[in-house]
């Protein structure tokens, strides 16, 4: 009735742990950069509407992301979320952090500040849908 010794002992596990450990340093640096940008000096809180505005502006002003608005095969929500990651990435780049801001990092940072990213991105999604609608009407 006992399982063979190797059962459930993945050889990958220790490796994965090491990678996560390495990522922790990066995550911490990314979190610090985001805190630096978004945590208010007045009340120590993060304003989700301000981040959403940043994302909207970024998508609107970045050629590649703006074109994605009209790629109707892409859900508005995923275009908005990609914009969020791009904004966070640009902050990491400003801090010379040689790191890719992962979706996991972004979600963890937002969670840490009690922000529901789906709620936060609703105005961005609305903006994208509005742009799409206007283009269809204008065409």
How would you characterize this protein structure?
It is globular, with a radius of gyration of 19 Å. About 8% of the residues have low confidence. Helices cover 71% and strands 0% of the residues. The longest helix has 27 residues. The chain is mainly α and 139 residues long. The N and C termini lie far apart (70 Å).
Summarize the structure.
This protein is mostly helical and 139 residues long. The protein has 7 helices and no strands.
List how many beta strands DSSP finds. Answer: 0
- Tell me about the largest β-sheet: none
List low-pLDDT spans.
9-19
Which value, in Å, is the CA radius of gyration? 19 Å
| Secondary structural class | mainly alpha
Please provide the ordered H/E string of secondary-structure elements.
HHHHHHH
What helical percentage do the residues reach? over 70%
Q: In angstroms, what separates the terminal alpha carbons?
A: 70 Å
Note the overall shape. globular
> How confident overall, as mean pLDDT?
87
Q: What is the tally of helical segments? A: 7
What are the key terms here?
139 residues; mainly alpha; 7 helices
Fold topology:
Blueprint: H1 12-38, H2 48-61, H3 63-69, H4 76-94, H5 103-112, H6 117-120, H7 122-138
Helix pairs in contact: 2-3, 2-4, 2-7, 4-7
């Amino acid at each position: 009735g006992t399982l063979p010794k190797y059962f459930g002992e993945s050889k990958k596990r220790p490796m994965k742990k090491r990678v996560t450990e390495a990522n922790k340093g990066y995550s911490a640096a990314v979190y610090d950069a985001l805190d630096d940008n978004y945590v208010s000096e007045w009340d120590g809180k993060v304003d989700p509407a301000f981040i959403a505005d940043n994302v909207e502006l970024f998508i609107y002003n970045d050629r590649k992301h703006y074109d994605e608005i009209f790629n109707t095969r892409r859900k508005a929500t995923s275009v908005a979320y990609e914009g969020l990651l791009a904004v966070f990435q640009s902050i990491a780049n400003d801090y010379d952090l040689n790191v890719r801001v992962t979706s996991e990092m972004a979600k963890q940072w937002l969670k840490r500040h009690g922000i529901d990213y789906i709620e936060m991105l609703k105005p961005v999604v609305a903006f994208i849908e509005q742009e799409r609608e206007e283009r269809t009407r204008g065409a």
